[in-house]
Amino acid sequence: MSLSRDQHEFQQKLQEQMDVSGLDALILTSAESIFYATGYGSRSIYNNGALGGTIAVVPKRGKATVVCSQFEQKAAAVECPGINVVCYPIWLYIADFPDEGEKPVQPDPNKAFALGVDVLKSEQPETRRIGVDAA
Fold first, then answer.
1. CA distance 12 to 60
2. pTM
3. In this structure, which of 4, 19, 59, 98 has its CB flanked by the most CB atoms within 10 Å?
4. pLDDT tens digits for range 86-106
């Protein structure tokens, strides 16, 4: 993220428009939407275009959250200090990551979405209307 970018201003504009549109939250999946809302340029989306590996959750009030794999966790936290970062363990065993015990045979393509819903449930339990970008 550019140090000259006022990420709070971008998020505030989104939240004002959400209020006008009657939305309680946004779940964003495209690289461009995630970058606009959070300032984080997800390499996994830009490099391989895999939908759902990284998402952004923007509540009507409060900070935006990036949900990403542990591969991207540190980059998101360093590049975007004004957002929340939630990560999920990757399904491969990597020596640099702590051993999480038994892992699934295949990755769960819905993991980021499930974590995004958990974020909304814990931080904004009254959420009823959620907008999703058409990626």
1. 9
2. 0.83
3. 59
4. 988 776 656 566 666 666 666
